[in-house]
Known about the structure:
Helix content: 10-25%
Number of domains: 4
Radius of gyration: 27 Å
Largest sheet: 9 strands, mixed
Amino acid sequence: xxxxxxxxxLLLSAACxxxxxxxxxxxxxxxxxxxxxxxxxxKLPEVCGVPLAEPQISPSLPIDVEGALRQKDRNVAxxxxxxxxxxxxxxxxxxxxxxxxxxxxxxxxxGEAGARVWETWKETREVYLPGGAPPPQWNAPPLAIAGxxxxxxxxxxxxxxxxxxxxxxxxxxxxxxATLTDRQGHVVRYEVRMNRVLFDFIxxxxxxDGRKQATTDSVSFPNGSMLIKAAWRELEPGETxxxxxxxxxxxxxxxxxxxxxxxxxxxxxxxxxxxxTPSAPQWVWSTFEQIDNLAGAHPSFRTxxxxxxxxxxxxxxxxxxxxxxxxxxxxxxxNCNQPTAAVDNVQALNRAMQQAIDRQRSVLRHYELISTQWxxxxxxxxxxxxxxxxxxxxxxxxxxxxxxFAQDTSSCxxxxxxxxxxxxxRFVGSDFSFTLSNAHPELPNTQNIPPPLxxxxxxxxxxxxxxxxxxxxxxxxxxxxxxxxTAKLHCESCHIDAGRDPDxxxxxxxxxxxxxxxxxxxxxxxxxxxxxxxxxxxxxQTASELxxxxxEMNAFLxxxxxxxxxxKARSSTPPHQGLYPVTKMTGEATRGEEIFLQxxxxxxxxxxxxxxxxxxxxxxxLWGEHSFNSLAGMHxxxxxxxxxxSNMPYRSxxxxxxxxxxxxxxxxxxxxxxxx
Length: 676
């Protein structure tokens, strides 16, 4: 973990007396404003004998969580974090000062109409421009979007809210759309915005440009950086009194282009606040929802009525999703004899805050905190181990409107730890923010061999059908070869990008590593018998027999030969073979299980069974009856650790430390799998 800033000793000396609302609303540079409130302090009982400062109905943002997350009793730290979340929510939803982005108007009351502070922040489309062009300064008006072929209505081009349907955090199904549809059949829309501290850092360091990111060795955003992710649904007549509303332009995507533009009254249904503070280098993660999402006489989403209904699943376009909360909003008082439990009665806190907000005649009384996820400080036990995995409380956190399909495995910090820059030659983390991945231009990955799109040589043309067939078998192995595969795996489950990725034992120069037809066929069949837990493909004595004697084997070998030709055309350097070796270490399975739950379970499921919804492959099983057997190469610790270090989490290879790779290996090889 990163070392804490020099400011930390000052925060620690304040302990539980750190003022909660002592600074101006925005992280933008400028003079301090008076502490403006509506005279509303929320009185709360002590937590395990520790008094906390009363939260205020105020436009002022807190500097940090009270006590800097270092209270000996984690129940107190959890309550302080939840109060911090509510203070942020109120301040960010204060009416904004006209003409000044990101500043609250302390002369106005919370319940007054007008744009909220966060609604004046920069939306990602204003920061990451075509060609990597620099974005305008902070106080520039909303940037007009390019009209393309003229399909964008002129009045929409400078709208404060342009909402997309494509920001669900975690998919669990590779077949059906990853969109959320409300009870009325309307798709939920999203936006992501950043405050001035974060925007200025990106602009001043050129990180809006993908080419600059490609040469950047590290990213560390300054304290005070904030991101908002908001979820909106179309409102029906008569619903506006219970929602924070906005007149927004929405659109659909067709062939990657925005179409079918229309102006709608939208209601806020989900709200993420992400804040980097002096005591939380992994940021503080707060999530809110509108109280009618899943409750009341007219919930926004279908909550299900039958045992056979698919709950929290992706579904066909236009069909309302059935949504249920799998992580209840905490409602029990902490047991002060269990100081490491980090329990807070969030529902009681919500009621107290809602009552105070109600006195301000604000629609925000119809919103509730789900919970706050925060990192344990580095001085906690186990922090001295040579691993950068961090402990979070609570371990999982999900919002029904943004992590709908993977709530029970959703970890804000765990997922965002995989965020990286546009750099393609190695993993460079983007400090828990996926926003940098929006930068243009998107640079090609020059390490991997591109897929076969069209023949370029006479040999290609003669063998094109087998080249494409080999790729297809690699990508859909168990579906296309059911007689030879028992596991629900593909060749590219291990050989990523259908064998074209050098980090995951690519298939270049296989005919040199296995110089005879007999040895090469045997190596392919070793995978079928072990990794696929199946039976071998037919083999032949001579290459001339392959097309008729073993057409599937022939397709694999021709596809491998095509990769050799592609590599020779790109490089004169001998290719690396197999997996990059890693230094042998001793793994700890207990730590490995923590890593799995934090960084792997959202894709593979918390039981490691993979994701096969809609009867299709999305992510592979890591153990159990559908995984590789006990003789597979991936069951050998040195191979599994090497694979994990270079390739996992998926598309974020390099985020795991060497120790984490061995810890995760120690956990995975203890899981049950088919014996051979």
